[in-house]
Design goal:
The chain is α+β, with helices and mostly antiparallel strands. The protein has two helices and seven strands, in the order E-E-E-E-H-E-E-E-H. 26% of the residues are buried. The mean pLDDT is 90.
Length: 155
C-alpha cells in the first residue's frame, strides 16, 4: 500500500511558492554559454547561470528579462528567451523557472552582482565540480545542449 506523506510542508500549493529563475544564455554562434561566479551564499565561489527572484505580482517572462538585464546588461532586444522547464521544490516552497536563449547579435556583457563570463560549450564538463545548484545547473546545461545537438530545440 502507498503511504501518504504526512509532512505539512509538502502540502504547499504552487501558488504560494516563491518563484526564481535561471537563464541559460548562448552566444550568437552557439559556441559559448554565459556563466557567473557567485559572490555570496548560497554556492559562493561556484559557477552558476544568471537569474534571480520573480517579484510578487510580476509575470515570469518579464522577471526573466529583468533579471537578465540587471545581471548581464543583455536586454530584451538582444535575445529571445524560451521557457524550458520548471524545477519544483515542495519542501523549500520554491519553483525554479529555467529559460534559455541565444543572442541575436554579439553583445557585450557585464555583471555588477556577480562576475559574468563566457564559457566554451565544449569545456563545461570540465567545470562540473565547480557548478552551483547541487547538480541542477549541470543537468540544465546537459539537457539543453542535448536538445540543441539533436535538433529538438531551435534557438
Amino acid at each position: 500500500s502507498h503511504k501518504q506523506n504526512s509532512n505539512p510542508k509538502c502540502d504547499v500549493k504552487e501558488t504560494d511558492m516563491e518563484k526564481q529563475n535561471l537563464i541559460l544564455v548562448f552566444d550568437k554562434g552557439l559556441n559559448r554559454m554565459l556563466m557567473c561566479k557567485r559572490s555570496k551564499a548560497p554556492f559562493q565561489g561556484l559557477l552558476n547561470l544568471v537569474g534571480g527572484k520573480v517579484e510578487p505580482k510580476e509575470d515570469s517572462i518579464t522577471a526573466a528579462y529583468r533579471e537578465l538585464e540587471e545581471e548581464t546588461s543583455i536586454s530584451r532586444e538582444d535575445i529571445v528567451l524560451t521557457h524550458l522547464m520548471d524545477l519544483t521544490y515542495y519542501l523549500h516552497g520554491r519553483i525554479l523557472e529555467v529559460y534559455v536563449g541565444r543572442l541575436i547579435s554579439d553583445t557585450s556583457v557585464s555583471g555588477s552582482e556577480n562576475k559574468v563570463f563566457w564559457l566554451p560549450i565544449r569545456n563545461y564538463r570540465t567545470c562540473s565540480g565547480w557548478l552551483a545548484g547541487d547538480g541542477n545547473v549541470e543537468h540544465i546545461i546537459e539537457y539543453t545542449v542535448q536538445l540543441i545537438e539533436t535538433n529538438k530545440l531551435h534557438l
